[in-house]
Amino acid sequence: MKKTNVARILDQQKIEYELYEYEVDESDLSAEAVAKKIGHPIEMVFKTLVLTGDKTGVIVAIIPGAHEVDLKVLAALSGNKKCAMVHLKEIQTITGYIRGGVSPLGMKKNFPTFVDDSALQHSQIFVSAGIRGLQCKIAPQNLIRITQAKTGTISNIN
Q1: Which of 8, 30, 130, 137 ranks highest by number of CB atoms within 10 Å?
Q2: Where does the chain show beta strands of DSSP type E?
Q3: Is the distance from CB of 39 to CB of 57 less than 8 angstroms?
Q4: What is the C-alpha to C-alpha distance for residues 111 and 56, in angstroms, rounded to an integer?
Q5: Which residue, among 32, 22, 26, has the nearest Cα to 134 in the 3D structure?
Q6: Domain spans of the chain?
Q7: Do residues 62 and 119 lie in contact, with contact meaning Cβ atoms separated by under 8 Å?
Q8: In the predicted model, what is the mean pLDDT of the chain?
Q9: Which CATH code fits 5-157?
Q10: Separation CA 33–CA 69 (nearest Å)
Q11: Rounded to an integer, what distance in angstroms lies between the CA atom of residue 49 and that of residue 103?
C-alpha cells in the first residue's frame, strides 16, 4: 500500500489511523460506493468539499457522505455572507488533489476547515487518504485537532 502525504502527516503527529484500500470505479466516485467497498456504513464515510466564501476565499467542509452541505449555515459559520462550491477544474490547482481523492489533510495550504458535528457521534470516521482508492479511518477529534477545524451542523440529508 502506497504511503500518502496524509499517512506521513499523521505518522509525524503520532496520530492513530488505519488505511483502507478499495477498487476505484471512475464512473462512480460517490461516498455511497466507497462505503460499500470498504464495508462500513455510509454514516461513517465523510466527504471533503472545497468551497469559496465571499469574504474568506477557500474553505473546506467535511460532511457525511449521504448529506449535502448547507451553504447558508456554512457561510455564517465561516464568516461569509455567501459560499459556493469550487469548480471541479480548480480542485487540483487549489488543493493538490483530484476529485475522488481530496483529503482534508495535506492540501497545498491550510484552509479554514469545518467538520459537520455529526462526526462526533462516531469513535472513528473515514476520510480520503489523498488518492482515489484509499480511505483513512481516524478519530474525529484527532481530525478536528490536526485540521484546526470548527464544528457545526453544516449539512443535511440529500
Answers
A1: 130
A2: 18-21, 46-53, 57-64, 67-69, 83-85, 113-116, 125-128, 134-138, 150-152, 155-157
A3: no
A4: 10
A5: 22
A6: 5-157
A7: yes
A8: 96
A9: 3.90.960.10
A10: 19
A11: 9
Run of H or E residues at 10: helix 5-12
Query: What is the tens place of the pLDDT at every residue in 33-70?
Result: 999 999 999 999 999 999 999 999 999 999 999 999 99
Closest CA to 140 of 56, 43, 68: 43
Quickly state the pLDDT bin for 157 (edges 50, 70, 90).
Answer: confident
Tell me how far apart the alpha carbons of residues 125 and 59 are, in angstroms, rounded to a whole number.
20
Q: Calculate the alpha carbon distances from 105 to 1, 81, 120, 156, 158 in Å.
A: 18, 26, 18, 23, 25
d(CA 128, CA 134): 6
pLDDT at residue 1 tops 90: no
Q: Residue type for 113, please? A: T
Question: With helix as H, strand as E and coil as C, how does 23-36 read?
Answer: CCCCCCCCHHHHHH
